Amino acid sequence: xxxxxxxxxxRQEVEEVFTGCETEGHxxxxxxxxxxxxxxxxxLEQEVEDYLGRAHYRRGSRQKNGWRNGYEPGKVKTADGIxxxxxxxxRATEEPYHSRLxxxxxxxxxxxxxxxTEMYVRGLSTRDVENMFIQTLGQRLLSRSGVxxxx
Length: 151
Prior knowledge:
Low-confidence stretches: none
Order of helices and strands: HHEEHHHH
Shape: flat
Number of domains: 2
Distance between the termini: 46 Å
Mean pLDDT: 81
Strand order of the largest sheet: 1-2
Strand content: 15-25%
Radius of gyration: 19 Å
Structural class: alpha+beta
Helix content: 40-55%
Number of strands: 2
């Protein structure tokens, strides 16, 4: 049984959106979210491929020692909500592997920070900003303390 990389699974989800399968919300919103997740996932997988010097399930000459060791769940905060991605894990590497891209993704998007700052400056309380995200997106992107903390 061959293991399937998360990017390939996401590609199947995108195809389901276009074939008219039942999805929550508007199909365009679902497509944009899946497209963003897919691009992030492919970039993370490519980063590991470049680091190891070989493609997924390829053996042979190696540029570096190490093995893929599954995926760990991760989240990226965007102005449109939280995107769930799978962070590649490596083992038996000469030095600990830390994804540069994952570190950038964890910081969140600049647009989200600008939106929160603008709402806070215009007089919305931290509780109002927090509740606005819950009502609009159905999930909590920032806590009250996260709204008022400098970024």
